[in-house]
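From the shared-data thread, chain only:
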Amino acid sequence: MIIFETRISTLLSIEYPIIQGGLAYLAYSELAAAVSNAGGLGQITAMTCASPEDLRQEIKKVREKTSNPFGVNFAIGQHGRPFEHMLEVAIEENVPVISMTGGNPAPIFDMLKGTDCKKLVLVAAKRQAVKAEELGADAVMVVGQEGGGHLGRDDLGTMVLVPQVVDSVKIPVIASGGIGDGRGFLAALALGAEGIEMGTRFIATKECVHASEAYKKRLLEADESDTVIIKRSIGAPARALKSVFTEKILELEERFGTYEALKEYISGKANRRYIYDGEETEGFGWAGQVTGRIHDIPSVEVLINRMIQEASDQLNKINRL
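Structure, as tokens:
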């Protein structure tokens, strides 16, 4: 296999420049450690831990399972909880990588001053990437509209957005959105990215133990047209699996288009009802268009090794053209 060494793999001290997304309510020690052990960068999700002490224990569990680098993701979106007390724990525990999604990352950057922590910022627009670089980000993760969960407002695809950002910043760029196999990984590198972030594909793995079997089964069955954008009416577009429940959300958006009308339907509680308990008529699950490319539920190690082999094969094929 070809060794894909980039500024991202060097920056994060990982074998392969493959990063696991934050995955609210799903990214805990089992998945994070599996990704890190397989040569990528696993992450745990901070803001869906119940308390700072729960986050501390999750960090300790990751370190019990792997000696490799890992990250902690902070989702600091519009309706999120205060994050400062959680970030203090990550700093005290000397977490090597902090990633930020949603909201203004400046307060996190301020708290990380004087640490050796690597700072990754998820962006969905060129202007956001430039701002993140100005603030001191070590790399930006660029999500195209194909991705699952929260997206940008401009409906820009990964194929267009990634090279635009690459040409606008000097720091390394990580591509996200619509990537789930070795061909997607190689395509991201061809666009100028130096690594990838995957969310949806890592849900459909054996080590994503918190995801319900119904959720994983739906990811296997769904094709690329079986997702829908919700929350657009309140300025926070996000991609989820199509269902009776998301149809209800879209109906409420058309009728009212306010956060108050939607809040019970788009809450973390509604999300957990589906991803934990499989209650498709009572909750929803995030997913990107890459669902059409998911055909099995392998171990994380098998998935990453297969991706690198596929990327190697495809690159050799291109070189023969």
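The longest helix spans residues 300-320.
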